[in-house]
């Protein structure tokens, strides 16, 4: 078989499929999201475990777009399940935010970074701006967000407000995807603006995910498993699936069988035991799961060096406070 390019450093599903990168099929993640009865799902996973890629995949699957993205899923596992699931492809308005790069030293810089991301997401739906279905005050709110002139309260309410606008425009409830929600929280703890970021994120998340009548489904990823009594206070519709849960446990990272096939496809069968010893997968309820960044980086390396390609540098003291 022709050896495909490896998607080292790529986290956009469409880019990977369009450029025919090697892709380990995780599209049954879509089925599990659809089948999950709780409408807000939190999935804490280690760093470099494919979280952004999976949420990107959800976006391209669910989002209603002018040009269909259905072709991206041709011949993948979700497509083989038939119309029961594929009839949801391209059926919903989607809000997609990733906070993975909001790693600042101060609250002001963090707030600016979050405002920029919210602004960009509103601009992605700029067709709403001139829609006659928005009241004058709502258009003024939209303009304040996109001109970065809104108050802190305006930005705290932005998930809920944008989802309301989208539901009214599309006559369809909204899917909200929030990737690496806790990255700025970690910075806040380590750089001494924790109380400010926690206050903002509590209100931001509450507006978007708690008692939001415009919400069809919400999916959040992060590093931390936080207490439902703190930042997610009162969010009774939240289901948390950690690495100790049986659900979703093979949807992030690579399973042993996936690593074996990957090595085989790149003519590295004889390296399996070395890779297994060196990269020693995480044990998720009896299933060994490997860090994709480490495995892909090893295979892509010119000399096939067995070395550390990733190290966890986070401060676990943050978990105690959360």
UniProtKB/TrEMBL annotation:
Q: Give all residue intervals belonging to the AAA-ATPase-like domain.
A: 7-232
Q: Which residues cross the membrane?
A: none
Give start-end ranges for the coiled-coil region(s): none
UniProt-recorded name of the protein: AAA-ATPase-like domain-containing protein
Record the organism.
Candidatus Omnitrophus magneticus
Q: What is the lineage of its organism?
A: Bacteria, Pseudomonadati, Candidatus Omnitrophota, Candidatus Omnitrophus
């Amino acid at each position: 078989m022709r050896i495909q390019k490896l998607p080292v450093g790529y986290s956009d599903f469409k880019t990977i499929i369009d450029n025919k990168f090697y892709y380990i099929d995780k599209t049954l993640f879509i089925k599990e999201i659809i089948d999950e009865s709780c409408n807000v799902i939190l999935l804490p996973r280690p760093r470099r475990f494919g979280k952004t890629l999976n949420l990107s995949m959800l976006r391209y699957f669910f989002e209603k777009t002018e040009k269909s993205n259905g072709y991206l899923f041709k011949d993948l596992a979700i497509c083989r399940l038939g119309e029961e699931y594929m009839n949801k492809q391209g059926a919903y308005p989607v809000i997609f935010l990733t906070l993975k790069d909001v790693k600042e030293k101060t609250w002001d810089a963090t707030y600016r970074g979050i405002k920029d991301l919210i602004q960009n997401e509103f601009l992605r739906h700029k067709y709403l701006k001139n829609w006659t279905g928005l009241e004058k005050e709502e258009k003024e709110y939209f303009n304040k967000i996109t001109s970065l002139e809104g108050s802190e309260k305006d930005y705290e309410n932005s998930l809920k407000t944008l989802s309301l606008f989208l539901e009214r425009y599309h006559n369809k409830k909204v899917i909200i995807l929030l990737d690496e929600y806790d990255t700025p929280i970690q910075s806040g703890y380590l750089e001494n603006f924790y109380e400010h970021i926690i206050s903002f994120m509590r209100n931001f998340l509450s507006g978007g995910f708690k008692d939001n009548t415009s919400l069809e489904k919400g999916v959040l990823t992060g590093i931390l498993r936080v207490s439902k009594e703190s930042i997610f206070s009162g969010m009774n519709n939240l289901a948390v699936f950690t690495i100790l849960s049986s659900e979703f446990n093979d949807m992030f990272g690579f399973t042993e069988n996936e690593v074996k096939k990957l090595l085989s496809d790149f003519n590295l069968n004889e390296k399996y035991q070395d890779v297994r010893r060196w990269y020693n997968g995480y044990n998720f309820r009896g299933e060994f799961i490997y860090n994709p960044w480490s495995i892909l980086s090893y295979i892509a390396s010119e000399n096939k060096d067995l070395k550390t390609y990733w190290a966890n540098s986070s401060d676990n003291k943050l978990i105690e406070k959360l």
